[in-house]
UniProtKB/TrEMBL annotation, chains A, B:
It comes from the Bacteria. It comes from Cycloclasticus pugetii. Residues 91-118 form a coiled coil. Residues 1-69 form the HTH merR-type domain. GO terms for molecular function: DNA binding; DNA-binding transcription factor activity; metal ion binding. InterPro entries: CadR-PbrR, DNA-bd_dom_put_sf, MerR-type_HTH_dom, MerR_fam. Gene3D superfamilies: 1.10.1660.10. The keyword Iron does not apply. This is Transcriptional regulator CadR. SMART domains: HTH_MERR (SM00422). Keywords: Coiled coil, DNA-binding.
Amino acid sequence: MKISEVSKRSGCSIQAIRYYEKEGLVSAPSRTEGNFRLYSSEEIERLSFIKNCRSLDLSLSEIKHLLELQYLPNTPCEVVNVMIDDHLSIVEKRIADLQKLQSDLRKLRRRCNSTRSIDQCGILEALSPDSNHSVSDG
Amino acid sequence: MKISEVSKRSGCSIQAIRYYEKEGLVSAPSRTEGNFRLYSSEEIERLSFIKNCRSLDLSLSEIKHLLELQYLPNTPCEVVNVMIDDHLSIVEKRIADLQKLQSDLRKLRRRCNSTRSIDQCGILEALSPDSNHSVSDG
DNA sequence: TATAAACTCTATAGCTACTATAGAGTCAAG
DNA sequence: CTTGACTCTATAGTAGCTATAGAGTTTATA
């Protein structure tokens, strides 16, 4: 199989596949006489695995770690659980941060309506440093 | 004032201040004979404004736009409101995406406990492409 | 057989908003 | 006159790709 076929079947873009090769997540495949990459179906599985992990926003280094673990079948899998737990914590923190941001933006938005001009804009006033109405105020 | 003083008072790092200058968010200040940047207190206000906007995760191009608007005091401020609304939409979408991700990760996590070995790991199984238990499955 | 279309290759720039670093110059105090 | 603190410019790095240029390869068609 050439790279475009592998791309379609794995869901990874051609550029991404070459990037994963460069980063060592997949090994360099054999080549045709004309220097085109040639893949077997094993590579599709590996790339699909990577794709699944990326859809969960796991980093390439985490994924690399998971791929290496598959060659150590007797390792206790606690390390996998810990990785997912850690990743969940990061996601939870990101959600909390964004919710704070959302709240701040909503408060800010309430300071103004569309009928004013720039020099009376409650939003710009709140964003200015000498304002008594700072961004996080109610 | 030299740059470190301005950095302390505005809350922007020295590198960030130079970066904002390069990107045209603040104008190039005068220099001492020894080529050190010299600022007036006006620049602190401008940089504090930028800092406030950045804490709301507004992009530099959005901030640039807001800074330009301040020179057009008679413009209707609807454009500001729209920008904040647009930004809120993006934040809301990001939150929703992350909540989906959180849910997927939690489901995945439930597939395994720490007492297994890698070859029996329910998480790795779920991540593998030939699995009947795909990542988003209940 | 010629040629055009479709595909692939490598290498590089770009994205965002900075941070970190190297190597050199400036300035104030002791 | 030297030490230390500060500043300067320029460059590389961050994450995970995407997009592009310019060149070569393969396949289909005329």
